[in-house]
Amino acid sequence: MLQRESSFAKEALRYGLIVLVLGFIVFPIAWMIITSFKPADAIMVSPPRFLFTPTLENYVHAIYDKNFLFYIKNTLFISVASTIIVVVTGSLAAYSFARYNVGDGHLLFFILSTKMFPAIAVILPYFLIFREVGKTGIGSFLGIGLDRPGALIISYTVFNLPFAIWLLVSFFQDIPRELEHSARLDGLSRLKVLAKVVCPLAAPGIAVTGVFTLIFSWNEFLFAYILTRKAASTVTVGVESFFTLQGILWGPVAAAATISVLPMLVFVLAMQRYMVRGLTFGAVRG
User: Fold this and answer.
1) CATH superfamily, with its number, for domain 56-279
2) pLDDT tens digits, one per residue of 262-272
């Protein structure tokens, strides 16, 4: 009897802690969404007002007056393009490290160490490089330069690629070499083995890498703020534009933040199954 009560108390404590942690995580998001539907006179009041008439004026101001969907379109294009480049390039590089031990581990460590480099330390060289490249005909043709999508795509690719390579190497190492040898005996080339055998088996890991890369690119602020002006600005810069000299537009800020969070939330929920498989890939070995 005492043992059963002790077990019940432990379960109650565990679930209580889970609810407490979830509440701590979800509360800011819930407060942001609630604020986005509040009228202006119900936002900055004390005590907080929980009973109010919902309004869409904050969303109207964000979407139509501030043209926030323009920032969403820019961010979607830049993030997806960068993620595709990172996943494809990172998969090829990670496979070579996993199978051929290129650089005997030293090159892989050097690539990973670049991820530890603070972004603020290279933002000025990036600014100067893209400013000069944008003045050339090739830079204009490729859309590379200040306030152009190419500058952010290259920047995000450079900073996300080391993480992608480091993450994918472990996934490729967990795939048995015997499967590749069998495919080679069947007449497949090394690239076909990678495309038809290795990549499908490593799909959960590739999906996890793509999700994290897309999230990092979507939420990045420093490069977007320094390297863009208006034409290529992203959602993080768009949200910052609601902080004016006259004050902070709390309602529109909450609406814009809700709009910017929604695509990533839907994407992560859709990829949740692959993320769970990818994060546990190779965890159990026979």
Assistant:
1) MetI-like (1.10.3720.10)
2) 888 888 888 77
